[in-house]
Amino acid sequence: MNTIASASAVRKVHVPLGERAYDIMIGPGLIARAGSEIASRIKGRKAAVITDEHVAPLYLDALKASLDAAGIASADVVLPAGEKTKSFEHLINVCDKVLEARVERNDYVIALGGGVIGDLSGFAAGIVRRGVRFVQVPTSLLSQVDSSVGGKTGINSRHGKNLIGVFHQPDLVLADTDVLNSLSEREFRAGYAEVAKYGLIDKPDFFAWLENNWQAVFAGGSARIEAIAVSCQAKADVVVADERENGQRALLNLGHTFGHALEAATAYDSSRLVHGEGVSIGMVLAHEFSARMNLASPDDARRVEAHLKAVGLPTRMSEIPGTLPPAEMLMDAIAQDKKVKGGKLTFILTRGIGRSFVADDVPASEVISFLKEKHP
Amino acid sequence: MNTIASASAVRKVHVPLGERAYDIMIGPGLIARAGSEIASRIKGRKAAVITDEHVAPLYLDALKASLDAAGIASADVVLPAGEKTKSFEHLINVCDKVLEARVERNDYVIALGGGVIGDLSGFAAGIVRRGVRFVQVPTSLLSQVDSSVGGKTGINSRHGKNLIGVFHQPDLVLADTDVLNSLSEREFRAGYAEVAKYGLIDKPDFFAWLENNWQAVFAGGSARIEAIAVSCQAKADVVVADERENGQRALLNLGHTFGHALEAATAYDSSRLVHGEGVSIGMVLAHEFSARMNLASPDDARRVEAHLKAVGLPTRMSEIPGTLPPAEMLMDAIAQDKKVKGGKLTFILTRGIGRSFVADDVPASEVISFLKEKHP
Ligand SMILES: NC(=O)c1ccc[n+]([C@@H]2O[C@H](COP(=O)([O-])OP(=O)(O)OC[C@H]3O[C@@H](n4cnc5c(N)ncnc54)[C@H](O)[C@@H]3O)[C@@H](O)[C@H]2O)c1
Ligand SMILES: NC(=O)c1ccc[n+]([C@@H]2O[C@H](COP(=O)([O-])OP(=O)(O)OC[C@H]3O[C@@H](n4cnc5c(N)ncnc54)[C@H](O)[C@@H]3O)[C@@H](O)[C@H]2O)c1
Ligand SMILES: [Zn+2]
Ligand SMILES: [Zn+2]
Q1: Most buried residue among A36, A44, A160, B112 by CB atoms closer than 10 A?
Q2: Would you list which residues of chain B are within 8 Å, Cβ to Cβ, of chain A?
Q3: Which fold has domain A187-374?
Q4: ipTM score here?
């Protein structure tokens, strides 16, 4: 499945999901080419573009001009930026606008934005007329390397994040790497945590390459494209092996159990912690906990921490501004996220860099004493 | 695919959809057996039962007792009866209650009611946690022979009926034929129109059998069970051939193009017209129009009308209480439902009883002059 082509500056990763197969294009200038890329693959000639208030002034006109040039009529919806937009309220609004634009089953919804816009628009595309076509134009690093690939869509409920949604694969993903230049450094770093994650799951060479090349990835150019392409390929491989998340797809949650608990503990207040920062701290904790369980060497945890610290990501709970709740409450959040069966938890642990695995018998008592040590 | 077993009074129709395969059980006493039938097939032991205010006082306690006896814990939600319940407002409420009941991916939503409850609950089951299991306990004749089979779920939008939803197949359908005794005669007859439809699509012998046995079907007992089983089998066959409605599944819309136009023309006011009544008039119109196009004999149209009239269904537009809008406006409703391409419409026409087919080149001009004749 090594389908990364390097003929031009634009890389292509194919996601071979049978009749739901699709391409991910990664490289510069893709928004300007969006119309022709879409028109050459999908029959319909009507689109509803969903975006947010930060992205719209930067890229909406360029995207619409490109669609127009390809003979695609487009309506657009500009939503507030931020996680709160993943709600039923906005879903209803988007569905209504998509129907108003007379988007039929072979026409498409286009998500232009980060993971919030992608998750919400993909959900709308999955339920309008029981499914219309869907194109992702991810604009944040996180959405380019993670959320735009794999077909998970959804919104949040008062019972928790992403609890309402569908699996709805996109028909095409256009990751324009130029647009990352307008992303804040903090958001870029947060997305980078997910890039590093793919190395830590099962690509030790990629992790080593990142240790040597991360500055080039941050600077842009071919190293950035390479890092994004490897990440998309890694995610695609996992998705193809387990489309509906019944097993191995769980590996993608490396660092996320601790990370989610920290996000919950900071009430999803992005001024204190954004998702990728939680994942960064969570991955260090996962490596340290694995060392504590004598599964991996403490040197690996130190190496992971050193790299994430070098790129400017937080790696310790104590770096989160404000007061964190006590370890017991973090444990409650973990137990809710994961369900404890007979005192045992399912967790992504590791035997070393790039050697992660799904452990389904982690004693809750070990996790809590570990957390108390880390956050006395 | 002739899988109707006749060992006991309960019939079973298997729907062979690969990993989404399921059974439809049809017969007396199934609500009392629901707990054990479910427990023997599905792993989870938690259920959220969704029902309406008419059905709840009649059957909710019996269903819950049966679940309880099988060790299944259940929460319940009682909604207002009627088409208006197929809305985002109620969907949000149902999703919330399902999450509150801590229904996980192997637990289930149970729809206890007619097509309204089935469509709404199935949609909720399809999106909570990106899909939990789903059991249909259809209580109207229409839902037993039509809406509970096939996996179409959804709600209405201000842009039209059933425009928002997902395909989400049930894991089990339990059609308890006893509960039809409490259904109003009018609702029973409306459901019967769909039973007759299966004969008219491609089962001339079944239609002839209905002509001779309809009184026994209305009375209950084995003829009723037989009619429902044949109908479920017919629907299952079409669904298996075309799960996501890309082609032949359209045959199920025999009589529905005219029927939907009449429903729209009466503003979905059930005191004037319910769905099955619109389908009854629509099927007669479809046969008359086919005769007018020299495809079928006018005798077939007369035979269809005679039978539907005999069971007490309306067969003429003039029987609808109140004033209908002029033919031109009915035509507008048809054009909106179907989309006119170059003056041509897709329509289900027939070459005679049980010989329906999908025609995609019906001149709109012919339809309008036909309608003007029928409704001057
Ligand atoms: N579906 C999945 O598989 C999956 C996987 C991981 C995360 N997610 C979801 O993704 C969301 C997080 O995604 P995100 O980090 O992209 O969040 P986001 O969409 O909120 O984007 C982050 C911020 O960056 C801004 N932005 C985006 N692109 C920009 C650009 N090119 N220039 C300037 N500003 C830009 C946005 O307006 C926003 O303010 C979460 O809701 C998470 O649940 C989904
Ligand atoms: N999903 C599909 O494939 C599909 C197919 C056809 C129709 N539908 C949908 O089904 C709906 C119509 O279904 P319906 O006719 O069952 O409507 P319904 O659910 O409104 O039921 C009709 C009435 O009968 C009552 N009722 C139901 N069972 C009863 C019983 N045993 N005793 C006494 N009263 C009872 C209900 O409370 C309601 O008042 C429409 O919304 C239509 O769009 C869906
Ligand atoms: Zn993540
Ligand atoms: Zn119908």
Answers
A1: B112
A2: 88, 92, 95-96, 99-100, 104, 123, 126-131, 152, 154, 157-160, 163-167, 244
A3: Dehydroquinate synthase-like, alpha domain (1.20.1090)
A4: 0.92
